[in-house]
Known about the structure:
By secondary structure, the protein is α+β, with helices and mostly antiparallel strands. It has 3 domains: 1-46, no CATH class; 52-210, Cytidine Deaminase, domain 2 (3-Layer(aba) Sandwich), CATH 3.40.140.10; 220-252, no CATH class. The chain has helices at 8-31, 58-70, 110-118, 122-126, 144-157, 203-209, and strands at residues 2-3, 52-56, 76-85, 88-95, 100-102, 105-107, 128-134, 162-168, 174-180, 185-187, 192-196, 220-224, 239-241, 251-252.
Amino acid sequence: MRPIRMTKEAEEKMLKLFFEKFQKEWKTFKENVNDKKFTFSVDFSEPIKDKIEIMFTPQAFLRMRALVEYYGTEVGWYGLVEKLDNMLYRVYDVKICKQYVNGSKVDTEDEDTLEFFNSLTNEEAEHMHFQAHSHVKMSTEASGVDLQNQLDVVRNMGKEGFYIFQIWNKNEDINTYLYDLDNNMFYDKKDVIITIEDEDQTIADWVADTKKLVQEKKVKTYYPAQYYGKGNEPKKDPVYLQDGYWDGTNYDQRWDW
């Protein structure tokens, strides 16, 4: 995660780091005739303590997955989102605008986009905070065009609200870019988990509950006694026995764990 806009704290951090590096390296730089310029960079990103959760309703998730699987070209869509709190977003429906696509691009006409947004109800327009597109079988990393589109959308929002951008592909990879303008924070894929909503609980919680019923059974490992080498190390691969059953002879259970 990192700040979206430069804050007073971020500016002070940058200046402090700059002067520390300047004082430390300036003498060496000045005496090295091969150096042409003094460079400086600062990373404002920080590891997130608790991941942001983006939760899809089953219908929303299946519709998005179906779009990615059905089309052999790129395809784009919008989504309706509820922000339940600063750490949880619920994507509950999918909307499609008229578009012109090929294997590497999604284009829309201004009049089609205007007609699409005018067709939304007030509630739909209020919850339109999501857009995504497919990269077919290519990487889900954002292209230069994708990043510029994100910046254009976010700049038009001012300093309030939030917006989620995603890139999907047929390999079931999902890349997320989340701009939380209310808290001046940007989150990317490493900061986010994707879950699917269930009527009673999330799918992740449901799977966790099954651990009470699904228990791993350890399989005993046996080695033929005549195959031991020096230091009691087996010379050949172990024989894995289910329920301790073996119909051969001369086997030792010394390597049993």
